[in-house]
Amino acid sequence: MTENTLGSSAADQPTQAIDGLDTRTKAQQVPGGDGAPSHSAAAPQAAAPTQEATQASAPARETAGRKFMRVEDERWGYDPAEVDDFLDRVDAVLATTARDLQSAPGVGSRQVRERVFDRVQGGYDPAPVDARLDELEDELADREREAFISEHGPERWEEHLELMGQTLLGRLNRPHGERFRRPSQRKQLGYSVSDVDVLCDRITEHFRSDEALDPTLVRKAVFRQAQGQRCYEEQQVDAFMDRVVELILALR
């Protein structure tokens, strides 16, 4: 989930062809090998910690007013400084009026959806942070739609949705096993072809019916790992699923 400039927001431009996208996979690898932050296992003995010190090191501690729990010190979580800084930027955007949203410096719904945080030991628990990001993405998408319609009119918005839908359906209508690229190396890992195709079939059924599609179906999708020709390239699948969520939110 790399950050883009506000100029590439969904409210500003039609969705690009997925083949041309170059985004990082959302399944960021957890540090643990070379270069991982060190954690000393042999700390010198000291007197019993005070109540204040104990509270400061508890997993449930809070930082800088953020209401996110931290994981235990030996586990990996999101870097609190990165999370707090990013959410401060989102708050600054949401403090603007809907009319000024497109010209406001900061982030849009796509940047929220694609954001990846570094991992540190004892960091924020990822689950509640991810849930909060989903809420912010929904709110920003709603405001971006309002701002676009206010400036360009509802007809331009409908044209934008139609173009986006045609781009996505073009890939969804491809045969099973041919929807995304295969890895260039024979032993490279990726997403199971069968798992991805099952989700694509469900998305296609929803788009062809009048039933609204819950973005959670796509956001929380988990694909098994496979190797070589039995898998799709992760980055391309992630980029496509991001565009699907973008369209789901735009249609609401």
Characterize this entry briefly.
The chain is mainly alpha-helical.
Strand order of the largest sheet: 4-3-5
Choose one word for the global shape: flat
- Please provide the ordered H/E string of secondary-structure elements: HEHHEHHEHHEEH
Average pLDDT across residues?
76
Structural class: mainly alpha
CA distance, first residue to last residue: 23 Å
- Helicity level: 40-55%
Biggest sheet details: 3 strands, antiparallel
Query: Number of DSSP strands?
Result: 5
The number of domains:
2
Cα radius of gyration in angstroms: 21 Å
Uncertain spans, ≥5 residues at pLDDT below 50?
A: 1-65
- Count of alpha and pi helical runs: 8
Fraction of residues in β-strands: 5-15%
Protein name: DivIVA domain-containing protein
Biased composition (Low complexity): 36-60
Biased composition (Polar residues): 1-16
InterPro entries: CHP03543, DivIVA_domain
Helix-strand layout with pairing:
Layout (H helix, E strand, L loop, with lengths): L50 H7 L18 E3 L1 H15 L14 H6 L4 E3 L4 H27 L1 H19 L16 E4 H16 L7 H4 L5 E3 L3 E2 L1 H18 L1
Antiparallel strand pairs: 1-2, 3-4, 3-5
Organism: Kocuria carniphila
Protein name: DivIVA domain-containing protein
Provide an overview of this structure.
The chain is mostly helical and 252 residues long. It has 2 domains: 1-8 and 58-152, no CATH class; 154-252. It is built from 8 helices and 5 strands; from the N terminus they run αβααβααβααββα. It has helices at 51-57, 80-94, 109-114, 126-152, 154-172, 193-208, 216-219, 234-251; strands spanning 76-78, 119-121, 189-192, 225-227, 231-232. Helix 4 packs across helix 5 and helix 5 (154-172) packs antiparallel against helix 8. The protein starts with 50 loop residues before the first helix and ends with a helix. Residues 1-71 are annotated as: Disordered. Residues 36-60 have a biased composition (Low complexity). InterPro entries: CHP03543, DivIVA_domain. It comes from Kocuria carniphila.
